[in-house]
Design goal:
Number of domains: 1
Largest sheet: 5 strands, mixed
Strand order of the largest sheet: 1-2-5-3-4
Strand content: 15-25%
Order of helices and strands: EEEEHHEHH
CATH class: Alpha Beta
Shape: elongated
Structural class: alpha+beta
Low-confidence stretches: none
Distance between the termini: 75 Å
Mean pLDDT: 93
CATH architecture: 2-Layer Sandwich
Oligomer: single chain
CATH topology: Ribosomal Protein S5, domain 2
Radius of gyration: 18 Å
Number of strands: 5
Length: about 130
């Protein structure tokens, strides 16, 4: 039995996917993808599976994702799933297909929110002066 481990990251979220021979079942944090909420996050996670449906029907995927918010987790999970499918298939055409669709399916998005600094309400915003 062939088993592949893959990871994906987005902001503070980290996803670890296990891809193995199966019947096309997908679980996110031990919950079936069909009942995963919110729907927008579910559709985002489904993207790599809809791009290669014949491959997705031959494997079972279990994803454990932690940290961040629900959309960061969805992005991390889809990257982990896509990487796992690429490695499991061993076909460079699959990687190229994912790359053509969206580069973040192959490579994790490393951007983080910039930290807030003193002297203002946000990362770049500053308190206004009105003495002139």
């Amino acid at each position: 039995m062939k088993v592949v481990l893959a990871t994906g990251r987005r902001k503070a979220a980290l996803a670890r996917a296990t891809v193995k021979d199966g019947r096309g079942r997908v679980f996110i944090n031990r919950r079936a993808l069909e009942v995963y909420e919110p729907e927008l996050a579910r559709l985002k996670i489904l993207e790599p599976l809809t791009l290669v449906p014949e491959l997705a029907r031959r494997v079972d995927i279990e994803v454990g994702v932690e940290g961040g918010g629900f959309m960061g987790q969805a992005d991390a999970a889809r990257t982990a799933i896509a990487r796992g499918l690429i490695e499991w298939s061993g076909d460079p055409k699959v990687r190229e297909l994912f790359k053509q669709h969206d580069w973040t399916l192959v490579k994790s998005d490393v951007r983080f929110k910039e930290p807030k600094k003193p002297g203002g309400s946000g990362a770049r915003a500053r308190y206004q002066k009105s003495y002139r």
